[in-house]
Design brief:
Strand content: under 5%
Radius of gyration: 32 Å
Structural class: mainly alpha
Order of helices and strands: HHHHHHH
Number of helices: 7
Helix content: over 70%
Distance between the termini: 46 Å
Largest sheet: none
Length: 246
């Protein structure tokens, strides 16, 4: 954090120096030829320099929250560099050297600004969409891990059951656990309801196994009821996996 603040101070100082130099240079060298064209150059350069300064601060803030620099951030930096280079080239060549007609010169600088803004906006939109998709994928993976952890927890509880049917119960839960291990995470929002159904079914299974452990004598149909619960979870999971493929 302190390092970022130091960099912000450096960038701010450099930005202030560049702005002062730009204004001084244009006032001294520009007004002798065309006031209008000089004003256009001044505005174009100040906008470009301010945009680069703002993007630098954005880079510092973003770089501190991620482990590696995102490609979108690098693409934005490239666009800003090209934009700044084109503005400086236009100022030197079209304003000072060729003395282009003020109207056409102003139009060229405006086109450069608009195209650069569109390119940067497109990159930003792509980055936002990619970030949303990445977050959805992370949420989906976390949801699947939670399901598997809950099944594993139920299996651990079942292993403490001192009953002749404990081996059969453990086998049912082990088979169900295997199905979750080889399932894919859900990234389609339309299937989030299916994830909620699985969560409710797992909760019912958890309550059922917990009840078996506290009963001195389990019901005669406990195995059938357990099979019904595990099969319902497996059926929902299979439907979910099948829908993921299409």
């Amino acid at each position: 954090m302190k390092r970022n603040r130091k960099y912000v101070s450096w960038f701010t100082g450099i930005y202030a120096a560049v702005v002062i130099f730009t204004l001084g240079s244009l006032v001294i060298l520009g007004f002798a030829d065309s006031v209008f064209r000089t004003v256009v150059s001044m505005i174009a350069l100040l906008i470009a320099e301010t945009a680069v300064y703002a993007y630098s601060l954005f880079w510092l803030r973003t770089a501190g929250t991620v482990k590696r620099t995102p490609p979108v951030l690098l693409s934005g930096a490239l666009i800003m560099a090209v934009y700044l280079a084109v503005v400086f080239f236009s100022t030197i060549v079209l304003d000072w050297m060729l003395a282009l007609q003020p109207y056409w010169y102003a139009r060229e600088q405006l086109i450069v600004l608009i195209l650069s803004a569109i390119a940067l906006g497109a990159i930003g939109l792509y980055g936002w969409n990619a970030g949303v998709q990445e977050q959805r994928t992370a949420d989906a993976s976390r949801s699947l891990r939670l399901h598997l952890m809950e099944i594993t927890e139920i299996a651990a509880i079942a292993r403490t059951w001192s009953n002749p049917g404990a081996e059969e119960l453990n086998q049912l839960l082990k088979d169900l656990e295997e199905q979750f291990k080889y399932s894919d995470p859900v990234s389609d929002p339309a299937m989030y309801e299916t994830e909620a159904v699985i969560s409710r079914q797992i909760s019912l299974l958890h309550d059922h196994v917990a009840l078996l452990l506290v009963l001195q004598e389990p019901p005669a149909d406990w195995k059938k009821e357990t099979e019904t619960l595990t099969e319902s979870i497996a059926s929902t999971l299979q439907r979910r996996n099948r829908d993921l493929r299409y």
